[in-house]
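Researcher: Checking consistency across runs. Here is FAD-binding domain-containing protein again:
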Amino acid sequence: MFDSLATSLGLLRLGYSSVVLESADSLRTSGSALGIWANGWRELDAIGVGHIILAKHTKLSGPLSLERELVEDPAKVKQLVLSKLGKVSDKIMGVFEETELENMVCAPLRFRYPWEMLWGNISRDNICVIGDALHPMTPDMAKGGCSALEDSVILVRLLARVLKRNDEGNEQHAITGALEKLARERRWRCFDLISTSYIVGYIQQNDGVLLQFLRDNFLASVEV
C-alpha cells in the first residue's frame, strides 16, 4: 500500500488531489520490515519524506510481534524449515527444533515470469499497475519495496509533466499517454529486477559443488 500512498503524496505536493482505495476494512499491520536501499532513499527524497524517516531511525526499537492466524499447517512449516537447513551447527538447528508450532508462519510467495513483462499489458486507457502488482518477485534481493517507490515517483513525474502541458483540456488523453510511457520506461527495469532476483535465489539455494564454490568464494561479496 505504501506505493499508493507515495504516489498520492507526490501528486499532492504538485497540487493534484487523489483517492487511495484499500481492499481491507482497516489498515493492516503485517510483515517484519521494509528494507530501503539507495534507490529507495532517492525516491523518498523525491517525494520529500526521506529526511523525516532518517531523523527517526534511531528510535526504532525492533520488530513488532502480533497474534495472527496461521496460513498453513505449522507442523508442516516447521518440518520444511528443518529440511532446508542442511549442514548447520547444532545450536542453529536447536533453535528451530525448540520453536513452538504456534510461532511458525508460512506466507505465500508471488512471482511473475520475466518475459510476461515484455509481452504483457502494463497499462490500458487510464489504468496501470505498479508496485508488487507489476513486478512480484522472489525476495532474494529485498528490493520489492524500493522498486515500488521507483514506480510511484516515475508515475507522479510523468503525470505532472503531461497535466501541466495539457492546455486543450483533454485530460483523459494526456493521462493515457503518461501511463503508456510509464509502461515503456518500467518494462525492462522490471524484467531485470525479476530475473536477477530469481538468479540470486537460485545460486543461494543450489547444492551443486561448482555453484557452491563460486557462491562462497567469489559471489558472497557482490552487491546486486
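Researcher: Does this match what you'd expect to see?
Model: One thing to look at in this run: The chain has two domains: 1-20+33-57+109-206, 72-106.
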